[in-house]
Amino acid sequence: MSRYGRARKVHANTVEGRRAVLEALRAERNIDRLLVADGIEVGPQMQEIFSLAENAGISVEHLQRRELDRQSQTKKSQGVVAVLPDTRYVSVEDLIFEADHRSQAPLIAVLDGIVDPHNLGAIARTMDAAGGHGIIIPERRAAGISPGAIRASAGALMHLPVARVVNIPRTIEYLNTLGLQTVALTADGDTDYTTADLTIPTAIVVGSEEKGVARLTQERCTATISIPMHGQLASLNASVSAGIALYEAVRQRGSN
Q1: What pTM did the predictor assign?
Q2: What distance separates the 2 farthest-apart alpha carbons in the chain?
Q3: Residue 121 and residue 144: Cα distance in Å, rounded?
Q4: Which residue of 3, 13, 53, 147 has the smallest Cβ count within 10 Å?
């Protein structure tokens, strides 16, 4: 353990904030080291963080608060930062395996161009809470796993499987061949989300904040569903829409 040493500048992904770091440790994620502000208040949460880090053999570097703030990527570290090795994504097949391993019908989300890391994090948090099996995101022009997304997910992205693919429309076609229904959330969907059968293997396709589900993606989906809007606004935030659809799946599956 170094003390008052000048830490290496963080270039890898980080998990920041006490709750998110604790979730990462509990999930036994691969962590290179912890950066902790000197003089941090050590309550029950920090005690557990230190205990889990020690048991896992993770080194702890104590820094002056100013230095830790310089290292922070979110500027909301709460005095503790976990430095991770390079992010590891899984394959689409891994998501299906996760469902099979739990003897459940797959329930995944395909994010078609979500660029806001907070939306990615919020969807991941809801997916985890709903007991879903993971998320698929595109490699380009979209949010990936980052400190901001991890923080927004309250640590869910530390253990929720995330697959990163080159082409979303082709991935939709592939999911169809695997026996999943691919349902796009759109403003003018053919079916109300409450009447769609979400008990069967399902991939819920969520579009970008600005443009929604892309035309090429939508054309390859097996169905489109919509959430009724009764006010003056025409649409919901992407993460809210995803959450509503995911919990409709939870409701249906829980009653069958």
Answers
A1: 0.73
A2: 61
A3: 9
A4: 3
